Amino acid sequence: MRKVVTKAIFPVAGLGTRFLPATKSVPKEIMTLVDRPLVQYAIDEARAAGIKEFIFVTSRGKGALEDYFDNAPQLEQELRKKGKDELLEVLKSTNMDSGEIAYMRQHKPLGLGHAVWCARRLIANEPFAVILPDDVIAAEKPCLQQMVEAFQETQSNIVAAMEVPDDQASAYGVLDVKEDMGSIVSTNGLVEKPKPGEAPSNLAVIGRYILTPSVLQKLNKKRSGAGGEIQLTDAIADVLRDGEDVYGYRFEGQRFDCGSKAGFLRATVAFALEREELRDDLWSYINDIVHADKAAQ
Ligand code: UTP
């Protein structure tokens, strides 16, 4: 019988140190691109891909995340009273039904692999998706939906992949490509943060995965890898060694690394320019500063 992906894990327990001091009290995933927090983009993408159960792996200080998905009856009432129907709809679209969303706690930031392992009991014996909300992907067809469609064919592990310049490969998990079939590649292995010059390819893994439950069994070993953290890519490489297939998927779309300040700012500009009510004003501001810069040179 063909397997279907209905559960997604959202690991959001990291410290977000690159955004200190903001992340002292604001979870990185609640930070907004224009007016929607990063998690909202992740939830929307998952829903479009057919996900029905949303599992957040959180940590101390991430209470704002849980509040965000709650109903806000008082606010809804106020908007209704004032006839602000459009805003009311926007607000309602962020509510999650009871039982649709679950929160697990990662007590120590031991790494992405460990965060995923924390959700193991809610996954049981099914394939599942992992979405890192700080990787935001602008795409006509949402990235996870593209991957779910590929999974319907492969029925095996799939990781989102994109080409990166050689000098950036050591910041990522990198695929050792066996056969390149265009949007899909089969792999011989994965290397987390290879040393400069030792990357097996320039196809880097980014924050979308569809995985089989055997990856969770590999994470049971709690083996630390690059940076002393329990790495998800190491567990995926382990299942590959055991004979399971792992595919890289070259998604269509533009990925923004919103875990970094520069990536976050780029995404902010790109998403703002997509909004009709902001576009003209922002363009004219960008033009002004570009001209002023040129004139000063
Ligand atoms: P990052 O590598 O971006 O780490 O984690 P971070 O802690 O969020 O941010 P910096 O590097 O300190 O600025 C990638 C993803 O894995 C999650 C993060 O929340 C993020 O979604 N993660 C990482 C965990 O859930 N737990 C961990 O122990 C580590």
Could you explain the architecture of this structure?
The termini are far apart. Helix content is 36%, strand content 24%. Strand 2 (32-33) and strand 3 (36-37) form a beta hairpin. By secondary structure, it is α/β, with parallel strands linked by helices. The relative contact order is 0.15. The protein has 2 domains: 7-259, Alpha-Beta Complex (Spore Coat Polysaccharide Biosynthesis Protein SpsA, Chain A); 260-297, no CATH class. Strands 8-11-9-10-12 form a 5-stranded mixed barrel. The chain contains 11 helices and 13 strands. The model has no long low-confidence stretch (mean pLDDT 93). It has helices spanning 38-48, 63-68, 73-81, 85-92, 112-117, 120-123, 143-154, 214-219, 232-241, 261-273, 276-296; strands spanning 7-11, 32-33, 36-37, 53-58, 101-105, 128-131, 135-138, 157-163, 173-180, 184-192, 203-211, 246-250, 254-257. The structure holds uridine 5'-triphosphate. Uridine 5'-triphosphate binds next to helix 5.
Topology (elements, then pairings):
Blueprint: E1 7-11, E2 32-33, E3 36-37, H1 38-48, E4 53-58, H2 63-68, H3 73-81, H4 85-92, E5 101-105, H5 112-117, H6 120-123, E6 128-131, E7 135-138, H7 143-154, E8 157-163, E9 173-180, E10 184-192, E11 203-211, H8 214-219, H9 232-241, E12 246-250, E13 254-257, H10 261-273, H11 276-296
Parallel strand pairs: 1-4, 1-6, 4-5, 8-12
Antiparallel strand pairs: 2-3, 6-11, 7-13, 8-11, 9-10, 9-11, 10-12
The structure holds uridine 5'-triphosphate (UTP).
